[in-house]
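Please check this.
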Amino acid sequence: MNHPKPRTRIQQKNTEAILEAALDVFSQYGFRGSTLDQIAQAAELSKPNLLYYFPSKEAIHATLLAGLLDTWLDPLRAMDPTGEPVEEILAYVRRKLEMSRDFPRESRLFANEILQGAPRIKDALEGELKNLVDEKSVLIARWSAEGRIITVNPHHLIFSIWSLTQHYADFDVQVRAVLGEDSEAPFAEAERYLVTLFTRLLTP
């Protein structure tokens, strides 16, 4: 059996530089508006050197998306069926808001892909993501039936959490234009607001 040769340190460094540069470029210009020349320039590599590592723009984009989906699903996976329902949902809100704060480029990359019809991750959305959301929706519905939270549509509750947290990354320029605040302030205020909002919404 042939095993792939381990990458050298310089190969690993260049691969990481390409993916980091591509994340910047794709999150700013979208897939269609981005070029290999832009990515190579941002990575401080020649285009032929970049093509040694990735054969196409599509290959770079696919690598980024493959790594992103797991990261995106982890906050929902962490919702604990044995925990206190309101606190578990609030913890999920906080984790999603933290992701918008800490991974804004990844959020915009994901949003751009969705806006284009998700041609490169539709199977994952209809498979892994849908299965996880359905699983957690059953859990939320059970909490409602037990009277531990108000009766609520579980899927739309999750959608509302997505929209109210990812907004701060995907519409960052608009948020800061309105607030005129430094980088951390919007998220501190947002957390206080969203915790109050969902606590009042969910508490029986």
Observations:
- The mean pLDDT is 91.
